[in-house]
Amino acid sequence: MIFHVEAYQQALPLKSVFRIARGAKTQADVVVVTLTADTDNAQLVGWAESVPYGRYNETVESVKQEINQFAQSLSAFDGDLAQLSDKIQALPGGSARNALDCAWWDLKAKSEQKSVADLLSLSTPSPCITAQTLSIDTPEAMAAAAKALGHPPLIKVKLDNQDIVPKMQAIHQASPESQFIVDANEGWSIHDLKACGDSLKALNVILIEQPLPADKDAELIDYSCPVPLCADESCHTRKELTYLKGRYDAVNIKLDKTGGLTEAHALAQEAQAMGFEIMLGCMVGSSLAMAPISLLSDCAKFVDLDGPLLIKTDRENGFDIEQGLMQPLNNALWGSPNSQIIL
User: NCBIfam families from the xrefs (predicted)?
Assistant: First the structure.
C-alpha cells in the first residue's frame, strides 16, 4: 500500500483575546494533516488537526517539519495500515504524532468501513457537559463574562496567582449555580494553594488543575487539598502515572500531549485502573481537534472540550454545544466511513 502525507498550517482567529497564566493570544495556529492511501480499488484519505504548543517547545514550523520528515520516510515504505501505525507510534509524543495518529484512525475507519468508536470497542458517546472557559481578566470583567455564558453547569476559570479568591468570588456571584474548575497553568506556589483551598471549595470549585509547576509536584506529597487536584502539564502519557500517584486525584488527557488517540485511549484505561479520575482537555482549536478525544467522554468525570466556542468560525459538521451540553461527534466530520475532508 502506498501512503502520502500532507501538512497544512491554518490560523483560526479567536472571538476575543484568550489569556492564561503564561500568556495571551488572538488566534489558534493549528496544523492539519491529510493521510492518503492508494489501494488497488480506491484512494482513501484520513485527516486530523493538532495544536503546536510553545510550553513544550513546539511551533507550527517545527511540527510541520517533523511531519514532512515522516512523509519523506514513506517513499521507501511498502506496508499495510498496521505497520504504518507502528511507524507513527515510533515518533516522539507531541503534536506531530497526534495529527498523524488521528489521521491514521480516520483513514482506518474508511478502510474498514467502521467507525473509530467501533474499532476501539467504545460505546457510542452520549451528550455530555463540557466546561466553558473564562480567560484571565479583572474580577469585574471575568464576572461579566461568566454572566454572559448564561449560567452553564460547569465553567473553567483560568487564574494566575493574582487575586485568586476575589476573582472567584466575583465569578461565583455572577453564576452562583455553576460549578467551577480552576486552571492555574503552573502559575501558583504551594503557599498560594494552601491559602485559597478552603475558600475555593466554598465557591463551588470542584477541581484545581495544575496549581504548581510540573517540577514542583513533590510539594503536593502529604498535602490534603480541600479541592481535588488534576495533573495537566505533569501528565503526558502512561509513563507518568506512577509518579503522579499521591500527588494528584485526576489526570487531564489531551491529544497533543499524548501524541494521539492511540496513547490517549491507553492512558485513560490505565489511569482509571490506578484510581485516577479522568478529565478530557484540549488546546484551543476547531471541532476537528476535539473529535478523536470526544470518543472517550463516557469514561471521563470532567470534560473540557470547548475549543470550538473560542474561535470565530468552526469547521463544517462541528460540535453542537448549547448551554454547556455537548452533543456527540458528527460522523461527517471525522472518524467514520462517511467523514468529509474540507480544508
Answer: racemase_DgcA (NF042940)
